[in-house]
Design goal:
alpha/beta
Length: about 350
């Protein structure tokens, strides 16, 4: 199983000191963390996209990944996710072709749609159109990257007549993932186009998502496809320290800080889940010693059968130095232990 890091550039006051970084400082930390992740041996560095919230500061992963591309050379550069349901797919095709070129062909694009209402309101999009927009825009984006001249007509943007997007990505077609949740619309979209699937598994009990992973494999088998199923990915909020007690005591305040912040679409602050339950055997988060983290990743693989796991460590206003300590410990003592989990040969981009 491959491990990568995922960040949404969350910017919150440190609950212990009250200190808050500037947006510039936070973005610079995101970029330098990518170079350090590559040096540590992580396979992926993934940058999320959010709009109009009070917690996350990255509205354009393409810009951040372009900066990271110039400071790295081997790590896969991914989006987690690109909001294709909310963006013009022609502009997405152009922007991420640039990222692929600047990175030397290291782009991995995950296609999703916003879970929050603000983008739909601000961009004048009906929230109930999310699934249809995601499918239409995904299908057009795939054509724009694989066909020289595209003539097309759909429901949500003006038609195209013999359009060739420039520049062209370096990869013949950059690896393209569908991002999904507990619903099956994204599973059907991924299977219909033979694409890998990454599931947003950060906020619910792990067992909630088992039917999603199972449905992907079942639908793939029933579709009549002769190629093997695509790859499957997941994500978790994660913190690791030398001992379980140290990890819990360091992380509790920061995780509670992250979970209680006002999110887009909410008019009040939520009550966080019980921390011990949240990181427990049936909780979505992973916190503990390296051995405990390895054990839970192994159990999640047994439950889901996935082969990519993205770790969200830099949340809740936790200082950069502590994030890096946890990252380095994960690289040294977790990466080697999980490398053989679920090993199988997969086609490039599958």
């Amino acid at each position: 199983m491959e491990l990568g890091l995922i960040t949404f550039g969350s910017l919150l006051p440190d609950p212990l000191t009250g200190e808050t970084l500037t947006q510039q400082q936070r973005l610079r930390d995101v970029v330098r963390a990518a170079a350090e992740a590559e040096e540590a041996g992580f396979a992926w560095y993934t940058v999320g996209e959010h709009h109009f919230g009070e917690r996350d500061v990255i509205s354009s992963p393409a810009l951040v990944l372009a900066a990271i591309a110039e400071r790295t050379s081997t790590i896969r550069l991914a989006t987690g996710t690109t909001l294709v349901a909310n963006r013009d797919p022609v502009l997405v095709a152009e922007d991420y072709a640039l990222v692929d070129l600047l990175s030397g062909g290291r782009l991995e694009l995950m296609a999703g749609g916003s879970f929050f209402p603000e983008p739909y309101a601000v961009f004048d999009q009906a929230p109930e159109s999310k699934a249809a927009r995601k499918r239409e825009n995904t299908e057009l984006l795939l054509r724009l990257w694989t066909e020289e001249r595209v003539t097309w007509q759909g429901e949500f943007r003006p038609p195209l007549d013999e359009v060739t997007v420039q520049p062209r990505p370096l990869q013949s077609r950059p690896p393209f993932w569908i991002s999904g949740g507990v619903g099956l619309e994204s599973v059907h979209l991924a299977v219909d186009h033979g694409l890998p699937l990454v599931v947003g598994t950060t906020a619910r009990e792990p067992g909630t998502f088992a039917p999603v992973f199972d449905s992907y494999r079942t639908l793939w088998s029933e579709s009549g496809r002769t190629d093997p199923p695509g790859r499957l990915g997941a994500a978790s909020h994660v913190f690791v320290a030398e001992s379980s007690q140290q990890a819990r005591s360091l992380w509790a305040s920061y995780m509670n800080n992250y979970l209680t912040v006002k999110k887009p679409g909410n008019t009040h602050f939520s009550t966080p889940p019980d921390f011990d339950t949240y990181i427990g055997p049936n909780g979505p988060a992973i916190c503990g010693s390296p051995a405990e983290v390895v054990d839970k990743l192994g159990r999640l693989h047994e439950l889901w059968g996935h082969d990519l796991h993205l770790l969200a460590i830099d949340v809740g206003g936790i200082p950069y130095a502590q994030v890096q300590e946890a990252t380095e410990l994960t690289a040294a003592e977790v990466l080697p232990q999980v490398a053989g989990i679920g090993s199988r040969t997969v086609a490039a981009g599958a």
